[in-house]
Specification:
Elements: H1 7-16, E1 22-26, H2 27-34, H3 38-50, E2 53-57, E3 61-66, H4 69-72, E4 83-87, E5 92-96
Antiparallel strand pairs: 1-3, 2-3, 4-5
């Protein structure tokens, strides 16, 4: 018997994905979790973005792909790197910590 995927379980799986990894869920689970209209696609995309992923519809499935922070030089996706902003009267300097 197939167990239905829960939103909490999907959230957990997306959070554990490595950069570039893909998670596939069935159309049945997608429709049950997000709905079946154009609002559903927006809700799924927003949910994916919160977990640093993109959602891509496929044939009978929906795929979630984890973004690669290094490919986009994204501070918010980079683990352990937070921006440090130092204000200087003549210019603004931005550095990144590697802690």
């Amino acid at each position: 018997m197939n167990k239905d995927l829960t939103l909490a379980e999907l959230r957990s799986r997306l959070d554990r994905l490595g950069a570039g990894a893909v998670l596939r869920i069935s159309d049945h689970d997608y429709e049950r979790l997000f709905g079946i209209n154009e609002v559903a696609a927006a809700k799924a995309a927003q949910f994916a973005r919160k977990h640093h992923c993109v959602s891509v519809p496929g044939d009978g499935s929906v795929y979630f792909r984890k973004s690669n922070p290094d490919a986009y030089r994204s501070v918010e996706l980079g683990a352990g790197r937070a921006p440090n902003v130092t204000l200087n009267p003549k210019s603004v300097q931005r550095t990144f910590s590697r802690e």
